[in-house]
Amino acid sequence: MKAFTVRDLHVWYGMVHALRDINLDIEGHCITACIGPSGCGKSTFLRTLDRMNDVIDGVRVTGRICFEGKDIYKEYEAMELRKEVGMVFQKPNPFPMSILDNVAYGPRLYAKVGKDALMEICERSLRQAALWDEVKDRLHKSALSLSGGQQQRLCIARTLAIQPKVILMDEPTSALDPIATGRIEELMVCLKADYTIVVVTHNMQQASRISDKTCFFLIDSQRCGFLVESGDTSQVFFKPKDKRTEDYISGKFG
Amino acid sequence: MNRNTTSRLAVCCVRILSATTIILLVAIIGYIAFRGLWKRERYVSDVLPSFSAGQQFVLSSPRESGLEHLSWFALREMAMGKVPNLRSVTGVNEPFSLYVTDDSLPAFLAAMDLTQTQLVRRTTLPLRPENGSLVVSLEAVPHERNVRLEDKVLAVDTVVAALNGNRRISLVANEDLKRLLAGNLRSWKELGGPDLPVVEAADERELQTVRGSWMVMDAKRWRQLSGSDNAPAKLDVEGLQESRNLSWGYLTGRTVESGKYGGIGTIVVNTFFLVLFTMLAAMPVGVAAALWLVEYAKDGLPKRCIQSGIDILSALPSIIFGLFGLLVFVQLCHWSFSLLSGTLTVSLMVLPTIIRTSEEAMREVNPNLLEASLALGATKMETIFRVVLPASRRGIVTGMILAIGRTVGETAALIYTIGSGTDVPKSLTSSCRVLAMHIYLTITEGQSTDKAFASALVLVLLVLVINSAANRLIHQRRH
Amino acid sequence: MGYRSRLHREQTGRCLLLACSAVCFCTVVLITIFIFAQGIPVFKKVPLGAFLFSTNWSPSDAEPHYGVFSFIVASIVVTTLSLLFATPIAISTAIYLAVFAKGRKAAIIRQSIELLAGIPSIIFGLFGIAVIVPFVRTAFGGNGYSLLSASLVLAIMILPTIINISEVSLCAVPAELKEASIALGATDWQTITRVMLPAARGGITASLVMALGRAIGETTAVLLVGGNAPLFPESPLSMGRTLTMNIVTDMSYAEGVHMSALFATAMLLFCFILVLNLLVRRKS
Q: What is the ipTM of this complex?
């Protein structure tokens, strides 16, 4: 089953038309990359998938987005949706609490969890995020004492702890150095076996390296974002159907 | 979902609790305004209010004396010379004289049950507003106010007013009186008296024989009967008189006898003087201090000491300033309780406010302007006067307005420094009282609460105006 | 030369400015000196322990006693109760202003808070006498003039202090933390209680400490509604006298050791406020 089906999506910020006519499907258990130049609405698109745009005043969304066949506005509460669809942000934003409390934050929201169960969840999430070995002896230290790359992996572990089905990542490595970036990319490839991943990136090499599907966005003359083409990564990168895609990939602009 | 409902409930509670501040503000200001504008005084009258027969003479009084109606008994006492001052009747401190014109004299004596020798009065004068407290004449005097004479009493059978157990009725509330007159009262027990049925007597004889009877009787007749056996008793009436409280006269009138009579005109003037002198003392020092902090201070011990000093000073309660003022200005400098001591004490109190606000305003001045001025060869001091001060003008004024607001409302710091004289001070060393203190003294000296509310309303309005002005300036600056 | 005189003016000006800035510092020093000078003599007659912990305040007896413990307790009771009453309302308002209110509603509430902050204490005292004392009398019996009435009046007075500083702290919580919490599926209330309030904890505590300082130094309002009985307060409903009330009431006729005792009470207040002030500064 497709993870997301998006039909006729339009997004307005107040009077500004930010995204138009988005129609695409997102497959489950693979990595979908959204690429395109700055300001073309990729992040806006990503944030609609877990209704994070609801938090901003004056945002209007029309069209139909279905997650696992159910309309995310009509058949899901925002909170419920966000349990299934997690998000990792561009700038790592751990809470000013201990590492353990950060990872435990999500599970504690939904139910009273015993100490042992909590440790289990944390260990599992931190292992999945490939952070366990580095922090296992300082779980009670502040999360802010970690390096940038470690903090981002902590944020990923925090998201994994609520056991979502989809993980959205908004330029997860743009604030990190190349080595940390490499580790996160490895992590993403490991995670796709169990999760669906949608990643926004302006780094095309990253997109071509790790993603299975790619969506290419552009901005038109009225500063409104739109989808140019989407499909298998190999096809989009080596045999693009649209000339604009070819231009972008070969570096003419963007 | 359980979480969702908890969240919604909690957010609802938060919204309701936040409305509390508005409710409190409206309640407090509304209540002060209501009590300040409208007073309800309890009064006890020995005659029935608004019951009077047609008279053969007219009573009039000058407009300012406050006499509107007079009880028959009171008028009799005045006629006999037992009332030297109107204060006991109207509350206004005015010597009292009774003028009776010759042609109304017979009717007056007859109505008052007096002989000519008992009457103390002035002979006929050309009647002018300033020479009459009360004038008895056959026709109304032009430009004067008619005074209504109330001369009926509620006479009752002696049994009704007798000791019943250990209670005795002597007062009837106004509402109960209405019921009595309408015939809705069944038994005297309802008023706290003996268990007798209420019966209206048709004449005097019935009043003296039928138990539990009452009738409305002429005061003169009641007095004539009062010496005899079986004389009827009299019940006084207790009511609530509603009238306007704060008035222009109160606001501008001179204060008499430390606030018991008269208005608060002089006190408002005193408040103005306090504000004026406090600002004269505090503003230069405050602005200068802010200038030093912003333009000259280098990080180090002096700057930290001075900033600590300002912080601590702003946190001290006003009573400590009051004590300091008492020790230093009143006693040590021998200025005694005076405007000077009070001014200096309050200046010290508002100094931190002025310094902080001015400092903030000065820091916002564009540093490029300062550079430009110095590059043209100006000294720092000249730059300050020509560039910084004009640019931070608005913030400084805001600080001044906030300081004025604090000065006007201050009580604790002034109790032991400024004294309590009510007149306008002749010099800086005379004592005078200001509005907030006047309210405080009115309450603690046990005088009329209504007057306290009227003064409080004036103070609240003053403070609201001052603070709104300051707020508007602050918000203008932000945008 | 014009240049010389301008420089001269600069120097004198600078000295003047420094002198003016020193006024505050000097005043604090002078206040300390004077009040301590007047207050210390009492300890020649009364040992410190007896002064602080005895409830016997009888300065006009043949054998005068100067124990202020009743007043200390009364001050503590009044301040604690007022904080208890004010904190829920104030924190809720701060949360509402920082998180939910937009535009006009927020502006109206902010205006009310500023106006409430500007009302002089005598007005609160008068309102207390006319409204709060009768309310306490009908609701709880007794006289009405009580420590409870005083704390209710004080609670209203310290609301603006707590609200302003708490709101600033709540607004200062970075938006990314709020976003992270929402992205994990937290409800509004969970985000507020689990992320925002802990993050703003320092500012909120500072606001409570400042409110405490204001409450304990308040004189006029408590004087009018507190009952002013120099006895040990058995319950919040009994009449009591706080430290500030004691100073104001007796000062008009005190002399000698009695006056010195009053100044010693002022010393106590002064030291307490200093300590509070230092605590707040240490935190920030």
A: 0.91
